[in-house]
Batch of 3 targets.
Target 1
Amino acid sequence: MWYSFHIYGISPEQFLNTLNRNRLDRKYFFINYIDYNGFHVRLRLFLSDAEEKRAYLKHLKELFEGCKVVEKIYDPEYNVYGDSLDLYEEYSAALSAYLVEHGRVDRLTMLLTVRELLHAFDRMDVRYLKFHVAWWEKGTGGHLISRIQASPNKGAAQRKLEDGLERLIDEFVVPGIPAMPDEAKDRLCFQFIHMTLNKMNCTIAEEAAIIKWFLKMKEESPHEVSGSLFL
């Protein structure tokens, strides 16, 4: 079963570098998070029982020496992912392992990954892109999100996503999409994109800028965005 550990006093880069040098031998995934105690990494580990959990807590405290490592109850987000929760967890584990192996990705890779997910969910359209932007605009800091302008140049559309990330999405995300209820696909597409970018250490502002760029391209050149440049 999944167990959760919060690691305080570490940067996203330090976390990835530490696991790159000291590979975990159990399935895991992580998210970056900020609460009233500050920034931390929430590490989920798939362990057999409470005894193994206690052993891993000791190991993590040694591995992340100088950091505060706290055991927490893992609360699966059934209300967010529904029947797609297992799909999300398996994808998250594969993506986390990829990022530990390759390190922090650049913004272009973030953009190309979002493009791949938008196509996988069949959501590369003005209606959905506006929905995604509006999700953040109605939330905390919405007045700031509304001011963010799309910034990548148009030539980015011609770039290709790194093969490893493309295969990862094809293997762990695409097969599960047909089983998702149509009425839930907007929400699930949003969550998969957001949590993917979260693991890539992308801020909400950067996420909004990426989505706004696709929206701008789609509104200005609808056939080009849905055609060969994005396939």
Target 2
Amino acid sequence: MISLKFNLLFFTCKFSFLNENAKNNISHKQVLKSLLKSNIKKSASKEADLYNLKKLILAIGHR
């Protein structure tokens, strides 16, 4: 019973954190979506893929 309560508490805290994090990172999600779309369009060029990967890493680092 204690394990069940602990798991429920952990899940509730984790969900609350993820929900708050999602509210704060709406623009971050939009940046990632646009990068993925542009990456798909430019997948024929290795330079474009490297450039998009660099932008993705920078976007994740600045959140």
Target 3
Amino acid sequence: MVKNTVSVQMDYFSRGVVNQYKVSVFLQRAHNPEKLALSFTFPEFNYTRFVYKGVLYFLCADRSGMGQNFICVLPERARFMSIDRGDMVTLNHFASIGGDKFKLIANNYAGRIVLLQGPLDGFSQIQAPLAGTEKTVTTSAADTIVSDQVGFKAPLIQGKNMNPLMKKGGQVSTAGLKGKYIFVDFWSTYCAPCIEELPYLKAAYDKYKRDVFEIVGVFDERAPGLTKKIFEANKVTWPTVGMNSKDAEISGYGHVQSFPTNYLIDPSGRIIAFNLRSEDLMNRLKELIGH
């Protein structure tokens, strides 16, 4: 792929000056040429190596500036073919390094400047560029960090139950659902893949009792009245919060950028899975709950 790339110029504005750099782009015919003639891939990233607690780590950052603003921090390895999406860290998310948590607070200029906030103790003195890192997050404190990432305490969701099929509306709050598994589903009325997932959610909801499993939907309504029709057609009977409702509290899930996006939360309130599709939810619940 790299041999067949072309070089393009990228511009960015910093401190009153327009700066330029070049990146490699791989062009190919799109899988669906009727909608898009070409697809673009940027097979480049900026990287550095550092030692933390005696272990060599590899940090890479998206160099194109065209996709999601992410970094990856992994133990050094001889080679790897790809990076798992679960290892990608976006702004205000946390990277796990040597058992400690580091918050990504800046990834500027196409990965040229990356700032992580966390403990300094594990770095040797030769890591001078990291001297400005603030020691604000410790390993013990990491157990209570709230973040919409797998392995972290789930952010709060609360608001008015907007599901017209439920006789009891009232307020919905994930804080009152601890002690059971909670599936949080972000979806939209215009999103066909979201609606296709509803029968799978319905099957899981009907199989497990409310004392062990609950679903909380968070929906984006684009056409008034359409939500009720979707609920009725799919027999949706779980509590649902309107994303744009004035009393809705969903700010902790600021990294939701597309629909559907979902999270599975364990009885302790920790996120244990992300973006389960079709039969994945049922299979995971069978592993966790049984039968």
